[in-house]
Amino acid sequence: MSSHGTPIPMISEKSGPLSGEAHVPGDKSISHRSLILGALAVGETRVTGLLEGQDVLDTAKAMQAFGAEVEKRGDTWHVQGVGVGGFAEPDRVIDCGNSGTGVRLIMGAMATSPIAATFTGDASLNSRPMARVTDPLALFGARAFGRSGGRLPMTILGAEQPVPVRYATPVPSAQVKSAVLLAGLNAPGETVVIEREATRDHSERMLAGFGATLSTEDSAEGRVITLQGRPELRPQEIVVPRDPSSAAFPVCAALITEGSDVLVPNIGLNPTRAGLFTTLREMGADLTYENEREEGGEPVADLRARFSPDLRGIEVPPERAASMIDEYPVLSVVAAFARGQTHMPGVKELRVKESDRIDAMAQGLRAAGIGVEEGEDWWTVEGRGFGDVPGGVTVAARLDHRIAMSFLVMGLATEAPMMVDDGGPIATSFPIFEPLMTGLGAKIARQTG
Ligand SMILES: O=C(O)C1=C[C@@H](OP(=O)(O)O)[C@@H](O)[C@H](O)C1
Ligand SMILES: C=C(OP(=O)(O)O)C(=O)O
């Protein structure tokens, strides 16, 4: 059941060539951060290209509850910030819906102010681990009172007199790193985060852009990020780039759908995000980067994806996992249409996303006729090659947008249609998924009756 309302059963079936341009929405990670950093700046931040998915809209509401003004006028989002240390105590529960990024970053942003806030979410978010952020926030002096196992609903009492922190993240997580950095903003002195494996670096880039003093250094311990506390953040004009994690769906759909040729323009290829595209090219995908350029200090290109009937399974290097962590579900679908095994090690984090993504994909793929083996932190998909994947089953989306979209992409090339019990969660990150895909020629529809 979706907590966003009545379940929306969806179906996809074998489609003719996909063609045309796929204009995917703004980057989810950068959209959350634009609103949160805008709320912590002094003055008005203006944002265009913001992802208007439910996850980000929930973060916008949360920023209002902490005292920032957030308003959309025309195509532009205006955020009137309250300054570092200026958050007011919310007079209502903060509902972050389905969003791990939203709740974890906001907890960090409020943890070093002397206020209390209570957080909740949907059934998926309320089952996800929060100790990974509340443990380092406790070092600043914040206290957390949640359900057993460190789950939401949870109240955070912000530190009265925060102290800066030096913290080595025990899991590869940009959300944990970002929560610590955002908390560090209102702690006097230097906050240091060390990550053994580099994760997406949007917080570092954007904090620097807002005028914080921050340095990044690669050392024997890993990547060391040092932030000077109590800066005055300057408001920014932000143009949010398009989301490579959303681009993954039309790209992968084109690779497995006979005769396809799809252009996905203006996709950010920040190396901390682009691992999927490297992997697909190693598998033999006809995926090219056109019009490569730099925008706002980030590499950007138009992606052209064409039907690729000769894909082969590969070993995905574990050190690449962080740069494609949200893309493993749809990669496993492409792997089903490749010849041979695709082995994906070093991906324990997939088990604590909106669903246990290894389990969710393994069950659906097996039902659809694909062999999958799995361990705690790895899985292997036995590809059958193009034209030989049965399909013909209904899979559970488990309140997980990426699971729903992955199986709908799969159905475009299986012998029998694929059904998903609830496409409602797709609106959390990719609200225009259905019209965008049908506009390319994909047979994806809501099921009635
Ligand atoms: O920081 C971010 O914006 C995100 C970090 C990742 O989560 P983890 O930090 O849990 O790896 C990713 O899965 C999520 O979609 C967005
Ligand atoms: C893991 C994801 O999001 P979040 O952690 O923000 O819920 C995702 O979008 O795939």
Provide a brief overview of the structure.
The protein has 449 residues and is α+β, with helices and mostly antiparallel strands. It has helices at 28-40, 54-65, 100-110, 131-140, 174-184, 202-209, 244-256, 275-282, 328-336, 357-367, 401-410, 433-439; strands spanning 10-13, 19-21, 42-48, 69-73, 76-82, 94-95, 116-120, 143-147, 151-157, 166-168, 190-195, 214-219, 222-228, 237-239, 261-268, 286-295, 298-306, 339-345, 371-375, 378-384, 394-395, 418-420, 443-446. It folds into two domains: 10-26 and 241-446, UDP-n-acetylglucosamine1-carboxyvinyl-transferase, Chain, CATH 3.65.10; 28-163, Enolpyruvate transferase domain (UDP-n-acetylglucosamine1-carboxyvinyl-transferase, Chain), CATH 3.65.10.10.
Query: What is the class of the largest domain in the CATH system?
Result: Alpha Beta
What count of structural domains? 2
CATH superfamily of the largest domain: Enolpyruvate transferase domain
> In CATH terms, what is the fold-level topology of the largest domain?
UDP-n-acetylglucosamine1-carboxyvinyl-transferase, Chain
Average residue pLDDT: 97
What is the gyration radius calculated from CA atoms? 21 Å
User: What ions, cofactors and ligands are bound?
Assistant: shikimate-3-phosphate, phosphoenolpyruvate
Task: Estimate the helix proportion, in percent.
Answer: 25-40%
Question: How many helical stretches?
Answer: 12
